[in-house]
Amino acid sequence: YFYSDKNATWLDAQAQAEGLGGYLASINSQEENDFIENQITEISFIGLSLQAGSLVWDSSEALGFSLSNGGESTTSPYANMNFWNGHWAFDGEYTKRRFILEIPCESEMSEPTIEFKNELGSNTMNLGEPSPNPTSGIFQLEVEVAQDQLTPIQLFNLTGQLVGQENKELVGGANVLEFDLSQLTPGMYFLHMTGSDGSLITKRIVKE
């Protein structure tokens, strides 16, 4: 598996996957779905789409396992996976998202293996994991950037409501940021950070 560092429409993502000798990811079990969910940091395209009234995988595999929300339509035919519970929803042709592509292995292996790679551009941020998480209020996050930049940061609750935002000055290299959620009610929150190239990275934080 490869996780894109840029946003694209589903059709453009499909073309990029084909150009690399692969296809947008197909998912055939809860275990596989859980694995991908644990790697993605934002809503991301998978290889399912509505074609001639039927849901089909980009790989041409038969659809067996499904976590579709049933929202597919001729105006929203392209599937995505959300990053908080792994369920699938659908977007229109102009929506741009990061995407998961799959490249089949050419050589036989004695045991099946899964490798998930995150291809990062030179201007894209590298984020560590929030610590501590869960947190009673204060947590830290290590952020590495290639160059000095002003980074917009937004915090959303589980319903998608914006509950906080600020801009942080980051210097090229490693930065350690501190956040305080002590005034917020317990629950799950999503921290969005936007890189200088427009890429969006999301981290989940649980407030106890």
Structure report:
It is built from two helices and 15 strands. The longest helix has 10 residues. The strands form three sheets. Strands 1, 2, 3, 4, 5, 6, 7 and 8 form an eight-stranded mixed β-sheet that branches. A four-stranded antiparallel β-sheet has the order 12-11-14-15, with no helix packed on it. It has a three-stranded antiparallel β-sheet with strand order 9-10-13, with no helix packed on it. 9% of the residues lie in helices and 40% in strands. By secondary structure, it is mainly β. The protein starts with a strand and ends with a strand.
Please supply descriptive tags for the structure shown above.
single chain; 208 residues; mainly beta; four-stranded antiparallel β-sheet; 9% helix; 40% strand; globular
* Order of helical and strand elements: EHEHEEEEEEEEEEEEE
Q: Which bin fits the share of residues in helices?
A: under 10%
Rg to the nearest angstrom? 18 Å
Shape, please? globular
Question: Helices, strands, pairings?
Answer:
Layout lengths: L1 E2 L6 H10 L3 E2 L5 H8 L6 E8 L2 E4 L20 E4 L6 E4 L6 E5 L14 E2 L7 E2 L10 E8 L3 E9 L4 E9 L2 E8 L6 E8 L5 E8 L1
Parallel strand pairs: 1-8, 3-7
Antiparallel strand pairs: 1-7, 2-7, 3-4, 3-5, 5-6, 9-10, 10-13, 11-12, 11-14, 14-15
